[in-house]
Design brief:
Layout lengths: L4 H11 L3 E5 L6 H9 L5 E5 L3 H9 L1 H8 L9 E6 L7 H12 L3 E7 L17 E5 L5 H5 L16 H10 L3 H6 L2 H23 L5 H13 L7 H8 L3 H13 L3 E6 L13 E4 L8 H22 L5 E7 L5 E8 L2 E9 L7 H10 L3 E6 L18 E4 H5 L4
Parallel strand pairs: 1-4, 1-5, 2-3, 3-4, 6-8, 10-11, 11-12
Antiparallel strand pairs: 6-7, 8-9, 9-10
């Protein structure tokens, strides 16, 4: 399955000297994307830290890499060097700095990892200026319909099958279970992925000793996705201190288990300012239907927001609004600190929320959408970004426009 990241990252590698750091959840397809990119280069080399022979080559140092890749002398076209799961190497930053400085004109470097490559600071000189970070997300409505990037931020209006939406909700956006579309396979795949995260990654790459409690925290998050985070309540659930719970949450973020959406409060009287809401990268793990729908939309918006930012198209953020009186909209998308559009997610209700108009006026948002998950898209599709007043739309009317 081709992903939109192949052409996007290949262009980055060919047009800029900086290394590409591609991070994302386990099994999201980073290695597959890296190998597809390699096929587009005349010369490329691939090393996986989890492979014993490859690990020995990496630990032999920069000179060994240069010799094996045959890049001691200049060439008409640089050689692509790919390092998979390199963050597990204690000295990976020093290694990359030395390799980049020694081969800047003769090689391009792609590094992939299932943990945030800017988190594990093992010492050594900073790599600032030598790399661009990219984040890889699960499949989305927009990517399944077209793997080419649009000329502008948004794709052109297009009809998207409601069945595609239902399959993503059921099986998630990770390629293998989505392609298989088997409930039994999906359950086994998720169980194995969870074991790898808590029995291998957290054990090997962190100093957390209470792995059982961390796994219990993850299970609690699964049942309260999209709810306001109470650190006090979470600490009681896992029987640990608030400080420890906060640290564990940051670790779960760094391993792409969950991500926070923080409140937007500019020009919002009596707004909440501190408590975030947490969502799972794999929305299909959320058992409650309404929460899963909201988590799914959060993932779709977060993917576009992060890709737009990684592409250098502006500084985009995903937020939410809630005031002390309980008025709320689920999501706010900002561009360069200005609100672009706001989104409310409903499973079946088709009565327009009063909060949309309230917060659209307060934020000067250009658009206000209330998504109804059960609505099917019109044919021809509605161009929802031609509407400025609050409007009820099918989920695919928005999601097909995103990345």
């Amino acid at each position: 399955m081709k992903r939109l990241y192949v052409d996007m990252l290949n262009h980055q590698l060919r047009s800029e000297r900086q290394m590409v750091f591609l991070s994302g959840p386990r099994q999201v397809g980073k290695t597959t994307v890296a190998k597809l990119i390699a096929e587009k280069w005349k010369r490329s080399c691939f090393w996986n830290w989890d492979n014993t022979q490859d690990r020995e080559v990496i630990m032999s140092g920069v000179s060994s890499i240069i010799e094996i890749a045959n890049i001691a002398s200049p060439s008409n076209e640089p050689t692509l060097l790919i390092f998979d799961e390199l963050h597990k190497f204690r000295g990976w930053k020093d290694f990359l700095k030395g390799l980049f400085d020694a081969t800047e004109d003769r090689a391009r470097i792609l590094v992939t990892g299932s943990a945030r490559l800017d988190v594990f600071r093992r010492g050594g000189d900073s790599l600032m200026g030598r790399y661009f970070p990219w984040r890889m997300h699960p499949l989305s409505i927009g990517e399944l319909s077209n793997t080419q990037l649009p000329n502008n931020l948004l794709r052109e209006p297009a009809t998207s099958e409601h069945q595609c939406l239902e399959k993503l909700l059921q099986f998630g956006g990770f390629p293998e279970p989505f392609i298989k579309q088997s409930d039994s396979f999906s359950r086994r795949w998720k169980n194995l992925r969870t074991q790898q995260l808590f029995k291998e990654d957290l054990r090997d790459l962190t100093r957390i000793q209470d792995l059982g409690q961390t796994e219990h925290l993850a299970e609690v998050l699964r049942h309260c996705a999209g709810q306001l985070t109470s650190y006090t309540t979470l600490s009681k659930h896992v029987r640990s201190s608030i400080k420890t719970v906060s640290s564990w949450l940051q670790t779960l973020e760094s391993f792409y288990y969950c991500f926070p959406v923080r409140p937007y409060f500019k020009n919002i009287p009596r707004s909440l300012r501190k408590e975030p809401k947490y969502y799972l990268w794999d929305w299909s793990n959320v058992p409650d239907t309404g929460q899963r729908n909201e988590n799914f939309i959060a993932c779709m918006l977060n993917k576009s927001v992060q890709i737009w930012t990684d592409l250098g198209l502006g500084n985009f953020e995903l937020r939410f609004i809630r005031d002390t009186e309980g008025n709320e909209v689920d999501f706010v998308v900002t561009k360069n600190d200005e609100v672009w559009f706001i989104v409310e997610v409903k499973t079946g209700e088709q009565k327009l929320s009063k909060s949309l108009a309230r917060f659209q006026k307060a934020t000067n948002a250009k658009h206000a959408f209330q998504i109804c998950m059960q609505l099917e898209e019109e044919n021809p599709p509605l161009d929802i970004f031609n509407y400025n007043d609050p409007i009820i739309i099918p989920a695919t009317s928005l999601l097909s426009r995103l990345l």
